[in-house]
Each structure stands twice: as C-alpha cells, then as structure tokens.
Amino acid sequence: MTQSVIPPSPSREDYAAQLEANADESLFDRDEPIALFVEWLEDARASEPNDPNAMALATVDVDGHPDVRMVLLKGHGRDGFVFYTNREGRKAGDLEANPHAALLFHWKSLRRQVRVRGPIQPVSVEEADAYFASRARESRIGACVSDQSRPLADRQTLEARVTEQTAHFDGQDVLENGTVGPRLATTGWLNRAAAGLPAGEGVRAA
Fold this sequence. Notes:
There is one protein chain. The chain has six helices and eight strands. The longest helix has 15 residues, at about 35-45. The protein is of the alpha+beta class. Mean pLDDT is about 75; it is low at about 175-185 and about 195-205.
C-alpha cells in the first residue's frame, strides 16, 4: 500500500485556536499595507525555521507560458520589492519580454500569506553592484561560473569551473568594475506593487 505524503488536515480545535489567535480583523482596515507587511515579516523571522524572506516568483514568457520558482526577497519599501537573479537566465528573459510579475510569501508557521503583483523593472547598476559586493566571495565566484537555466553535464563540471575561477581570482576581489572580474550575470529587479499589496491571515487568507 502506498503511504500518503499528504499531512492530515488540521482538526476543528486547531482551526478554532488559529481563529482566536488571529481574531483582530482591524489589521485588514489599515491604509498602509507595507507597514503590515514589515510587521508580518518580522514575525516570520522569529517563527519560520528557514528563509522567512523566501517568496514564489511567477512570470510569463514571450509565448504566454507561465512559470514560477522560489527566490529570496532582498529589499522592500514603498517603491516595491527587490530580488536578484542571473540576467542570462530564464527569469530575466521572461521579465524582459513581459515586465510584470507576481510574488507570494507563505509563512506556514503563522498561517499567513501575502500576495503581490505589478509591473517590474531592473534596479540601478549601482544597486546591483552593491548587492553583488555584499555576497560572500564563494557566492560571487559561484555566480560567475553558473549557467543559469541551462543544462549542466554533471556536478564535476561545475566544481571544476569553481576551482578554476577560484585560482584565477586568487588574491583579487570579485567585483564589477575594472580588470578584477565582472559581476557578469547578476542583476536585480524591483516589483513596483507596494501600493496595492493584498494580505491574508489564517483561514481568511486571500
């Protein structure tokens, strides 16, 4: 007999407890949704076991085919939500062809989710450079050798590239400008949907 991988549904008591914990519905009457998002993100930092800034990013390609994947939120504010990706990868191709996207945050430990959608645009070169420089050296080298969204022969091929580039940049910094090394594929995108941010909590989640 095949073992079910679907967890059991919450009991009536579980639902009742969650409703009681989230009984204050005045939060849905707020005029400033970003402030609520910031509060919920802080709550998630305290309760989520991993990556409270993880979000699903949905895009549509030039042929109208949708795609979705998990990325990490790297900035937020009244201007929108910022994430970074490889400008030679599929995500960047989708966003260049159709500069609109949707985001979904799901904090299971809190039974909360936030949905965002709107137009999208690249961040400035200066912002992308600053983000790339903030990454660990190993992460920057990894970004240089990774062919995003393209087939890889095997793991050994990637490890060989990492070894080669690590030796190439020995004693040098891996930055955008000058002859030291390129930021190459890293670029950032700003989702300008802050003003219309919808949110949901518990069983009332949108």
